[in-house]
């Protein structure tokens, strides 16, 4: 069974549940009890949300990558779902929980995607998961690579190793320029480790990023720091900055509980 066929069956099931709901509610009204109708309504809503969720993943195939290494592919990225960021997933899910339509959720997700940018800095190459062999020669140098691929691909610019503060200034400046961040803006900051970066190092990078943005009079209103998407034990980090508005902040400040990520 294809995904489209499964979605069609779910839609038909939802229509049947909705029809049954009407009949039960009419019957229950004669006995002063509408519990059955309310239950059926919840089931119909759950099925409808499931269908919209499945179709929402497909809708992301139409998004065009505007930032990062994928930017150079332009419209070639159409047809491929974008992994995006955990923050984007949470905000889109929170919008769906509020009862927004699929089109409204997709619009929020696309607006978020257009408001964020990322750069990866690599200090050592990714390693083979079976024999720990390095995929490159970066670890044999005193250089780091700015603009590496999220999966460890080369192709960025190699520069001499710098301190955390100087590295952050270099990377954050490029991201802020790309996002056109200005004084008074609010921002989300993610420091994502690549697999071999310690939490202490990531927190130092985060502190320096907050200080850099504070000097620009940009307020960091939310953040994520940790091994969120690793790259086979590579050394380095990915910095993600997003320009946020009140809607993004409100949606972010909702609880979620999943096997991969939870927040109160």
Structure keywords:
globular, 44% helix, two-stranded antiparallel sheet, 6-stranded mixed β-sheet, alpha+beta, 264 residues, 7 helices
Strands, helices and their partners?
Layout: H1 3-29, H2 35-59, H3 86-97, H4 102-113, E1 116-124, E2 143-146, E3 157-160, H5 164-179, E4 186-193, H6 199-215, E5 219-226, E6 235-244, H7 246-252, E7 256-257, E8 262-263
Parallel strand pairs: 4-5
Antiparallel strand pairs: 1-2, 1-6, 2-3, 4-6, 7-8
Shape: globular
Mean pLDDT: 74
Helix content: 40-55%
- Summarize the helix and strand pattern as letters: HHHHEEEHEHEEHEE
Report Rg.
23 Å
Biggest β-sheet description: 6 strands, mixed
Structural class: alpha+beta
Strand order of the largest sheet: 3-2-1-6-4-5
Total number of beta strands: 8
**Helix count from the secondary structure assignment:** 7
Distance between termini? 38 Å
Strand content: 15-25%
Give unreliable regions as ranges.
Answer: 30-38, 50-73, 76-84
Description:
The protein is α+β, with helices and mostly antiparallel strands. 44% of the residues lie in helices and 18% in strands. The protein has 7 helices and 8 strands, in the order H-H-H-H-E-E-E-H-E-H-E-E-H-E-E. The strands form 2 sheets. It has a 6-stranded mixed sheet with strand order 3-2-1-6-4-5. A two-stranded antiparallel sheet has the order 7-8. Helix 1 (3-29) runs antiparallel to helix 2 and helix 5 (164-179) crosses helix 6 (199-215). The longest helix has 27 residues, at 3-29. The chain is globular. The model is unreliable at 30-38, 50-73 and 76-84 (pLDDT under 50).
